[in-house]
């Protein structure tokens, strides 16, 4: 069984849209949003996947969510059938932290590829969890977003050296760093140097959950990207649909 986030109580967050961030930004994609996360970013825009009633980890909104309304369990084969019924042939597994459910995801992706061969499968991960051995060969692209100090997560949990080294050495992996202040770049530069991350596979993205904030930060972040040879990524879905579920 897979534990998914919901768009409304009882309705799993499985939907077709455009990829809003990173190396595949703008491409038609099908999304499956998994529930649960091992980290807790204070600015997280999907806190409904982890900050359930009783979870007191800090978040800017100070909201908690009823688990029974925001989680739903589905059989892997049923998830595969729902994904196969949508038109895009690019699947993005997101969260939360999807790799916490690696074995079940491997079964789902295997079932999906049996139904519709040729699916391109991406997984969005915070980079602190290893892919399950059965899932790893089924993934075409890792979108790795290590959490910097401004996220509020301790480095001992968020920046796991062996995981960062493994992703840096994997040609399927692209790195996306969330930037809130100019000073965040120093931490990115340190990680890129320490783990020999190829600059062409690094994207910098402004932190923000509304278009105004994203545009303000994009003005100076674009200059930093150009100066250091990194790619810039916006948050396209925020500009198009706002900070809403199922987009």
UniProtKB/TrEMBL annotation:
PROSITE patterns: RADICAL_SAM. Substrate binds at residues 18-20, 33, 94. Residues 24-243 form the Radical SAM core domain. Its EC number is 4.3.99.3. GO terms for biological process: tRNA queuosine(34) biosynthetic process. Keywords: 4Fe-4S, Iron, Iron-sulfur, Lyase, Magnesium, Metal-binding, Queuosine biosynthesis, S-adenosyl-L-methionine. It is an enzyme of class 4 (lyase). S-adenosyl-L-methionine binds at residues 43-45, 96, 145-147. It holds the Pfam family Radical_SAM. It catalyses: 6-carboxy-5,6,7,8-tetrahydropterin + H(+) = 7-carboxy-7-carbaguanine + NH4(+). Belongs to the radical SAM superfamily. 7-carboxy-7-deazaguanine synthase family. Catalyzes the complex heterocyclic radical-mediated conversion of 6-carboxy-5,6,7,8-tetrahydropterin (CPH4) to 7-carboxy-7-deazaguanine (CDG), a step common to the biosynthetic pathways of all 7-deazapurine-containing compounds. This is 7-carboxy-7-deazaguanine synthase. The lineage of its organism: Bacteria, Pseudomonadati, Pseudomonadota, Alphaproteobacteria, Sphingomonadales.
């Amino acid at each position: 069984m897979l534990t998914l986030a919901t768009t409304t109580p009882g309705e799993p967050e499985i939907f077709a849209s455009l990829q809003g961030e990173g190396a595949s930004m703008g491409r038609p994609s099908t999304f499956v949003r998994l529930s649960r996360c091992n980290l807790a970013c204070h600015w997280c825009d999907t806190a409904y996947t982890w900050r359930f009633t009783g979870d007191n980890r800090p978040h800017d909104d100070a909201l908690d969510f009823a688990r029974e309304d925001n989680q739903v369990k589905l059989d892997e084969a049923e998830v595969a059938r729902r994904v196969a019924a949508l038109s895009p042939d690019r699947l993005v597994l997101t969260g939360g932290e999807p790799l916490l459910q690696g074995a079940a995801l491997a079964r789902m992706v295997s079932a999906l590829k049996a139904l519709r061969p040729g699916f391109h499968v991406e997984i969005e991960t915070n980079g602190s969890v290893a892919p399950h051995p059965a899932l790893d060969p089924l993934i075409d692209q890792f979108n790795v977003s290590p959490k910097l100090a401004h996220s509020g997560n301790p480095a001992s949990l968020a920046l796991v050296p062996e995981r960062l080294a493994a992703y840096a050495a994997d040609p399927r992996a692209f790195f996306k760093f969330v930037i809130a202040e100019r000073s965040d770049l120093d931490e990115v530069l340190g990680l890129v140097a320490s783990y020999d991350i190829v600059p062409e596979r690094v994207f910098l993205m402004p932190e923000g959950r509304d278009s105004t904030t994203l545009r303000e930060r994009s003005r100076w972040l674009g200059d930093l990207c150009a100066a250091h040879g990194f790619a810039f990524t916006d948050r396209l879905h925020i500009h198009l649909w706002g900070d809403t579920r199922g987009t």
